[in-house]
TrEMBL record, chain A:
PANTHER family: BACTERIAL NON-HEME FERRITIN (PTHR11431:SF127), FERRITIN (PTHR11431). It comes from Pedobacter petrophilus. This is Ferritin. It catalyses: 4 Fe(2+) + O2 + 6 H2O = 4 iron(III) oxide-hydroxide + 12 H(+). One of its GO terms (biological process) is iron ion transport. The lineage of its organism: Bacteria, Pseudomonadati, Bacteroidota, Sphingobacteriia, Sphingobacteriales.
UniProtKB/TrEMBL annotation, chain B:
This is Uncharacterized protein. It comes from Pedobacter petrophilus.
Length: 175, 119
């Protein structure tokens, strides 16, 4: 009997489902960052608003990268419904705490995907995921460094103003 | 008519249960679902859609709702067939399709072992 499903599509149904879930998570991240940008803007943290807007665009790019992969492999990429985006934050610091928490969840999600790929011996998708695993290094690093500014500079006096000014200086390099 | 179709297209029985069967045609690269008095042709995509639609039906809600009959219309855009199924039939169809896709997985493994792996 011909393996018709495999002829149509390189990835398994399970991997396809997980990739679609990841597409949804990236879309969620993108919306969350945009929501953070809005909060920062309205509360006078203009540099942070720019920072989160840029992050939002990056997450959208991640979403599309996954989307393209699913389609290229012959699968069914699903445009996700995104709901329940947090829009109210207790304070400037909480925004950055939530950002790091979101990145940690994304890293965890990619680890799950990778472990599923290894279990199925889907080395093709595994190789594709390597880009994202590497990207998460940078994503978590930046979120963690930003949060650390609150410790280093402190929130008192002009602290928050100072933190806001330095958020965009954070960059990651491997060497 | 079913018998004739099976003979002409050399259909392979992928999976069957008491209520129906799914066949594959290697000649035409398609599937036939024999269920609910219909002998309906599907391709890869539409068979996957059918499975998804059937799995999304909330059978518990269907049974508990006293305001309506325990029947559900099963179809989707681009599908040439409409099934009007009772809760029990939905359970059977679900079982049939899950069995079918499990056989696809098994067949995939068999194909890998027999024809694809080069040692
Ligand atoms: Fe991302
Ligand atoms: Fe990210």
């Amino acid at each position: 009997m011909k393996d018709l499903m495999r002829i149509k599509c390189l990835i398994s149904q399970d991997i396809e489902t997980l990739l679609n879930q990841q597409i949804k998570k990236e879309a969620h991240s993108s919306s969350l960052y945009l929501s953070m940008a809005s909060w920062c803007n309205q509360n006078g943290y203009d540099f942070s608003a720019d920072y989160f807007t840029k992050q939002s665009e990056e997450e959208r790019a991640h979403q599309l990268k996954l989307f393209k992969y699913v389609l290229d492999m012959g699968g069914n990429a699903i445009s996700p419904e995104v709901t329940g985006i947090k829009s109210d934050f207790a304070g400037f610091r909480e925004v950055f705490e939530d950002a790091l928490e979101a990145e940690i969840a994304i890293t965890q999600s990619f680890k799950n995907l990778a472990s599923r790929c290894l279990k199925e011996q889907d080395f093709v998708t595994m190789e594709f995921l390597n880009w994202f695993l590497k990207e998460q290094r940078e994503e978590e690093y930046k979120a963690r460094r930003a949060l650390e500014l609150f410790e280093v500079i402190g929130e008192e006096g002009t602290g928050r103003w100072e933190i806001d000014k330095h958020v965009n200086d954070i960059s990651y390099s491997e060497d | 008519m079913e018998k004739a179709c099976i003979d002409i297209n050399e259909l392979i029985n992928v999976f069957s249960n008491n209520e129906g069967a799914v066949y594959q045609s290697d000649k035409l690269n398609c599937f036939y679902v024999d269920f609910g008095g219909k002998f309906a042709r599907y391709n890869c995509l539409s068979l996957q859609k059918l499975k998804k639609v059937v799995e999304e039906i909330d059978i518990e809600a269907l049974l508990l709702n006293t305001q309506r009959a325990d029947f559900e219309l099963v179809t989707f855009n681009g599908c040439e067939h409409i099934y009007l199924l009772s809760a029990l039939e939905i359970i059977s169809l679900k079982d049939l399709l899950q069995g079918t896709f499990t056989m696809f997985k098994l067949n995939h493994m068999v194909n890998d072992c027999l024809f694809r792996l080069v040692y």
